[in-house]
Amino acid sequence: MSAFAQPFKIFAFHKEAKNMFQLRQSILLFITASIWGSGFVAQSIGMDHVEPFTFTFFRTAIGGFVLIPVIWFLNKLKQRGGRIIHNGSKKDLFWGSFFCGMCLVAAESFQQFGLVYTDAGKAGFITSMYIIFVPILSIFLAKKVGLSVWIGVILSVFGLYFLCIKPDMAFSIEKGDFLIFICAIIFAVHILVIAYFVNKVDGVELACGQFFAGSFVAFFLMLIHDTITYEGLMGALPAILWVGIMSNGVAYTLQIVGQRGMNPTIATLILSLESVMAVVFGGIFLHEVMSSRELLGCALMLAAVIIAQIPPKKAKVS
After folding, report:
1. Alpha-carbon Rg for the chain in angstroms
2. How far apart are CA 30 and CA 12, in angstroms?
3. Which of the residues 238, 260, 308, 317 has the least number of beta carbons within 10 Å of its own beta carbon?
């Protein structure tokens, strides 16, 4: 009897271990989403002290330096495991870092300028629309777009209307919301560029390279456009360190670790909670309060992001 029951015990053990692994990965991804959500609050606070390009330069530069020891540690693990380190050609890494860095500094700059005029919570939800823009832009790469994505697009349009357009504003949109909207489009392009180069080079090295490339461009934009003061930098320092270390360095690494062995759709759904956490942290630390109309817009946009992740075969109407 015990011999007969032994295979079932082994099966139950492996199933429990798998469930624990999935739970751990989900927690890591939720922590990632929470860190990214809190980043909107830090960015909003930082904008009280420094100008957009200054904030972008320091956050990207810090993010690059944080990932250097991560790359060293991961390479050491590969060496101990007896694996050959093959991180792609230096040429691919250079051009990947350059193009990804250009997209990154453009998106983060539009986001920083937008946060001057809009709330952190709203910015989080509008930014999350990159998840919908990615498959739409993929049309130009001859990729099909499923029904779920188009449903998500329609919902997001209604969500944007309730979130960004006030009842007495007719069909005009506020400046900050429009800048964040552009940011979301550029982030979608950024993801597609990453998707192209990440198959050629190491993902963490690409992230590190894009941070340094972006900071290089942001440095000159900062010198040309911004007014820099010691008092301003010191006032923004906690926010810059949080976004640079946590949002850029730690969260990106957690995302890579957390997505290993996870269903991509489930992983994306968890990461999309970034927008929800932006509202939560905005309410806690910035005392931002949304109207019922804006909350309806947030709910529609969150639903759009979730529905857009449904695989095409599940989205078909029978």
Report:
1. 21
2. 27
3. 317
One-character DSSP codes across 96-109: HHHHHHHHHHHHHH
Nearest of 26, 184, 48, 172 to residue 110 by alpha carbon: 184
Provide the pLDDT confidence category of residue 3 given band limits of 50, 70 and 90.
low
Helix/strand/coil for 278: helix
Q: d(Cα 11, Cα 74) in Å, to the nearest integer?
A: 32
Q: Which two tokens stand for residue 70?
A: 């991560």
Q: Are 41 and 120 in contact (CB under 8 A)?
A: yes
Residue whose structure tokens are 């499923």:
146
Within 10 angstroms of residue 266's Cβ, the number of other Cβ atoms is 15
The mean pLDDT value for 119-126 works out to: 83
142 φψ region: left (φ > 0), alpha (ψ -120 to 50), beta (else): left
User: Residue 134 is which amino acid?
Assistant: V
Provide the residue count of the chain.
Answer: 318
Q: In angstroms, rounded to a whole number, what is the distance separating the alpha carbons of residues 316 and 318?
A: 6
Residue type, 83: R
Say if residues 278 and 40 touch (Cβ distance below 8 Å).
yes
CA separation for the pair 108, 46 (Å, rounded): 13
Name the average pLDDT for the chain.
Answer: 82
Query: In degrees, to the nearest 5, what angle opens at C-alpha 308 toward C-alphas 18 and 107?
Result: 100
Which phi-psi region, left, alpha or beta, contains residue 174 (left: φ > 0; alpha: ψ -120 to 50)?
beta
Q: Both tokens of residue 293?
A: 């109309």
Angstrom distance (rounded) from CA 79 to CA 55: 37
pLDDT at 151 over 70: yes
CB 309 within 8 A of CB 265: yes
Residues 245-297 pLDDT 10s: 998 888 877 877 777 777 665 677 677 778 788 888 888 888 888 788 888 88
Helices and strands in the chain, H and E counts = 14, 0
